[in-house]
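Question thread 4412

I'm putting together a teaching handout and wanted feedback from people who do this every day. The idea is simple: show students a protein as raw sequence, then show them the C-alpha cells that encode its fold, then repeat with a second protein so they can compare. Below is the first pair exactly as I plan to print it.
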Amino acid sequence: MNWLDQVKWDAQGLVPVIAQEAGSGDVLMFAWMNREALSQTAALGRAVYFSRSRGKLWFKGEESGHVQTVHDIRLDCDNDVVLLKVTQLGHEPGIACHTGRHSCFYQAWRDGQWVATDPVLKDPEHIYK
C-alpha cells in the first residue's frame, strides 16, 4: 500500500498538520496538506502546505523567506493528523506566524479574555512582498 493511502484525508482531500519546532518543542502553527503537499514535503525536506484560501500549494516561506526545514513527519494514532518537526529558518528567532511572531499560538486566555503574550519579532509590513 502507498504510504499516502494510509492517511485519512477529509472530504476535501486534506489532512490537518501541526508544525512543531524540533529544538524547543514549541507548537508553531496549524495548516492543511493535500496528497501533493505531503508528498513534496517528504521529498524536499521542506514544509509544503495547501492554502485553502488560495486553492493551491503553499511552500512555507515562498514570500516571507521563513522556510521550515522538516526533520520528522509523524502520523497520529487515527491516521488523521500529521505532525511535522521542523526548524524555522529566515529570522532569528524563527518566525512562523504571518503576524511576525515566533508562533501562531501567541494568544493566551487570561481573566476572561484573549491576551497577546508573545512579541512581534518583525513587522509583517516588512516581511511580505
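The second pair follows. I'd like the answer to focus on this one:
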Amino acid sequence: MKIRPLLLLALCYSQFAMAHVTLEQTSAPAGSYQKLTFKVGHGCESSGTHTLTVTLPDGVQGAKPMPKAGWKLDTVIVALATPYTSHGKTISSDVREITWSGGLLPDAYYDEFSMQVKLPETEGKLYFKVTQLCEKGRLDWIEIPKDGQNRKELKAPAPMLNLEGKSMPAEHQH
C-alpha cells in the first residue's frame, strides 16, 4: 500500500496540531463561573503522563478541581495582593495552582482534567500555564504570544481562553 505524500503530510500535521495541552472551551463570558477542561492528547517522548500542573492566571477566583480516580490532587493556595468578596466573605488567599499526580495516562490515550472557576470581569485573552511530567521528560506549555505574534508560531503555547462580553445574568452556579 502506497501512502501519497500529501496524505502523509496531512496525517502528520493533524497529529502535531492535536499534540498540545488545550482547553476544551475557546471562549467564555467575562465574570462567569465556568467549568474549564484541559485536554491532554499525548505524553512526552512517547511515554505516559503521570503529573499535570495548571497555574491559574491572576483574576481567576475560587478554583475547585475535579478529582480523578487513581490520581492525587494537590492545590497551592497563596495570599492575594488584592482580596475579593465572595458570598459576603473577604477572600484573602486563593488557589493559584492545581496538580493531578500519581496516575498514568499512556501516550496512546487521551484524557481530560477539569476544574470550576470564576473568571475575571475584564474581557481579553487569559492564558493558563501547564506543566506535563511524563515517565520520560516533561513538556511546559507556557509560551504566550507577544503582541502581533500568531499562536501557531509557538512551539509550546499555553492554553488560552478568550473572555468575551458578559452574558445576561444567570442563576448562580458553583
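Top answer:
Good format. For the second protein you could add a caption like this: The CA atoms of residues 19 and 37 lie 16 Å apart. The first strand starts at residue 22 and ends at 23.
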